[in-house]
Amino acid sequence: MKKLLILGIGNYLMGDEGVGVHFAQRLENEPLPPGVDVMDGGTGGFHLTSFIEHYPAVILIDATLDDHPIGHIRMLEPRFSKDFPKAMSTHDIGMKDVIEAMLFMGRLPKIYLFAVSIESLQQQQVTLTPAIEAIMPDLKKQVLAQAKKLIASL
Question: Which of 24, 76, 77, 105 could form an S-S bond across to 40 if both were Cys, CB 3.0 to 4.6 Å?
Fold first, then answer.
């Protein structure tokens, strides 16, 4: 039975904005608890709805522009689109839109968002900056700890 989806989102071509995608791709090669799936959601927008709705809980990893230092990791439990950080990403249809649509349709799972503070969206590169690369082990530790906690409670 599917219990938990770890979903990395972002634009791989925009440097640190793709932190969620980089994270998901790396986690795909890791042993995970039974019932945990990992997906590189890229900039999938509404196309992700058909995947997300099959899980009771979803851990999202995405970049955010905010007042926190570069590389700051926050776990949020947004219930509505307004609960997401203001500048989530450059996705054509952002996660705020997807969440709002799923909420409207009554198909929204419990969401846990790991927001990673980045400096800018202007980078045109497929690698992460050293500052964001440096936090990847801590991000992995936090996400997997949350995943284990959720699997035990679902």
Answer: 24
Tell me which residue range forms the domain holding 103.
4-153
Tell me whether residue 71 is exposed, middle or buried, using C-beta atoms within 10 angstroms of its C-beta: 0 to 12, 13 to 18, 19 or more: buried
Per-residue pLDDT tens for 57-84? 999 999 998 889 999 999 998 776 677 7
Q: Which CATH number characterizes residue 140's domain? A: 3.40.50.1450
How far are the Cα atoms of 10, 60, 85, 102 from residue 24, in angstroms, in the given order?
10, 10, 20, 22
Rounded CA separation 118/23 (Å): 14
Which candidate, 99, 98, 90, places its Cα nearest to that of 12? 90
Task: For helices 19-27 and 130-153, give the axis angle rounded to 10 degrees.
Answer: 60
74: β partners: 115
Angstrom distance (rounded) from CA 106 to CA 136: 34
